[in-house]
Design goal:
Blueprint (H helix, E strand, L loop, with lengths): L3 E10 L3 E10 L2 E5 L11 E4 L4 E4 L1 E6 L1 E2 L2 E2 L4 H10 L5 E8 L8 H10 L11 E4 L17 H10 L4 E6 L6 H10 L3 E4 L6 H10 L3 E2 L21 H7 L4 E5 L7 H11 L4 E4 L11 E4 L5 E4 L5 E3 L17 H11 L4 H6 L3 H6 L16 E7 L2 E9 L2 E5 L11
Parallel strand pairs: 1-4, 1-5, 6-9, 9-10, 10-11, 11-12, 12-13, 13-14, 14-15
Antiparallel strand pairs: 1-2, 2-3, 5-19, 7-8, 16-17, 17-18, 19-20, 20-21
Bound molecules: zinc ion (ZN).
The site of zinc ion has 5 residues, from loops.
Length: 405
């Protein structure tokens, strides 16, 4: 692989600084920052950034699909999605599965997991399994109690390619599941819950360290004394400094003020941006067919909603239509923080939550997952994206990966 020097960039190291300079990439890694010109081999490919912003690639911990592709639908859709994600500046995703963590889907899980090491485009180090041990799993689904036998069958089917599992503190028998996941160095996320303070504390004590799509599907516990505001998982997670949180930053699933409240409790190091994207994300506004037997109406200014007059959930939210570039752009507009701290919410912070030690940073030895951006008052547009030092998206050769934007 040819080495590359990205020169004349406004480099941003998340959490630390933004300053002009150059990055030398070699053998998939960042080899030097601001190397001496004389020391750079004349065979190195040079990219003149012309002063554009250079950041680590964005990392999405919670994403079910993009465009027309849904990770759990078929192995090929994992590959198709991986090739599209870099056009949004996303270089690493934990493909998030929701309906296939059961005994009848073990062979599909096996086939899906075999795709992860083979992706061309965004890296997919492991799945985020959103379930099956959820207390409030959503429309029509039942709570599945913690089951160590089923857990081992799922982990075996995925060949160990699981980076995170989402559970609910109020699922029966969940504590042994959390402990087993932590033994395997799998991050445990809390979600889909109406847990009490005690249940949430027990889950955190057992090793859960993060809450995903925080506030969404975290309804209040029942009121016991009229007029006394119930307290549960949300307050416990906000108060516990062992826990970080992530948000669907689309202004539909969470109000920006609720993100500011979490920021006051957690500091910028404790906040992560996610998309929870689904079919339709990144596509132009319109109506799209899904594999679930109904269509969705996708709107960039809203989300994805069921668009089928005969369906009982017509008009209801059906995932977000968010992409990571827009999530960061929204946070830049909503939060009064230095930009390098906000970029950490899509780079170093998710890398640390998912134990991805070499990702999400601009430092010598880190994976060369990088994005050059074009910035305007309307948004961020990836101009050039590298994954492991390989250019996987370039506006000059691939102007629009999913059609006009
Ligand atoms: Zn989800």
């Amino acid at each position: 692989m040819t080495a590359t020097l990205v020169d004349n960039a406004m480099m941003l190291r998340p959490g630390h600084w933004a300053r002009p300079g150059s990055v030398l990439v070699d053998d998939g890694k960042i080899a030097a920052i601001n190397p001496e010109v004389d020391s750079v081999d004349c065979l190195v490919e040079r990219v003149d950034a012309k002063g554009a912003l250079l950041t680590p690639g964005l990392i999405d911990l919670h994403c079910h699909g993009i465009g027309q592709f849904l990770y759990e639908a078929a192995p090929q859709q994992i590959q198709d999605a991986a090739s599209v994600l870099p056009s949004f500046g996303t270089t690493c995703v934990l493909p998030t599965l929701y309906t296939v963590m059961n005994r009848s889907s073990l062979s599909l899980l096996e086939r899906l997991s075999e795709e992860l090491p083979k992706t061309v485009g965004a890296a997919m180090p492991g799945f985020h399994l959103e379930g099956p041990f959820l207390a409030l799993p959503g429309a029509g689904a039942e709570t599945v109690a913690g089951d160590l036998v089923l857990l081992e069958e799922i982990l075996a089917a995925t060949g160990g390619r699981v980076s995170a599992m989402s559970v609910s503190p109020d699922t029966p028998n969940i504590i042994p599941v959390i402990k087993r996941l932590r033994e395997q160095d799998i991050a445990v996320f809390l979600t889909h819950t109406r847990a009490s303070v005690e249940q949430t504390c027990a889950a955190i004590d057992a090793g859960a360290q993060h809450a995903t799509h925080f506030y969404d599907v975290f309804p209040l516990p029942e009121e016991t004394d009229p007029g006394v505001r119930p307290v549960g998982a949300v307050e416990t997670i906000l108060a516990d400094d062992r826990c970080t949180v992530d948000f669907i930053c689309d202004n539909v699933h969470v109000h920006p003020m609720a993100i500011r409240a979490a920021l006051a409790a957690k500091g910028w190091e404790g906040i992560v941006a996610i998309t929870d994207a689904n079919i339709g994300a990144g596509l132009d506004d319109g109506i799209y067919k899904t594999p679930w037997g109904y269509s969705v109406r996708v709107s960039q200014s809203d989300a994805a909603r069921v668009a089928d007059e005969d369906h009982p959930q017509h008009g209801m939210l059906s995932g977000s239509s968010l992409t990571m570039d827009r999530a960061i752009f929204n946070l830049l507009n909503w939060l009064d923080l230095p930009e390098y701290q906000i970029w950490a919410m899509g780079t170093t912070n998710p890398a640390s939550v998912a134990h991805l030690a070499n990702k999400g940073d601009i430092r010598v030895g880190a994976d060369a997952d990088l994005v050059l951006w074009e910035q305007s008052k309307n948004g961020l547009q990836a101009k050039k994206t590298w994954v492991a030092g390989e250019c996987v998206f370039d506006t000059e050769s691939q102007p629009c990966a999913l059609g006009e934007r």
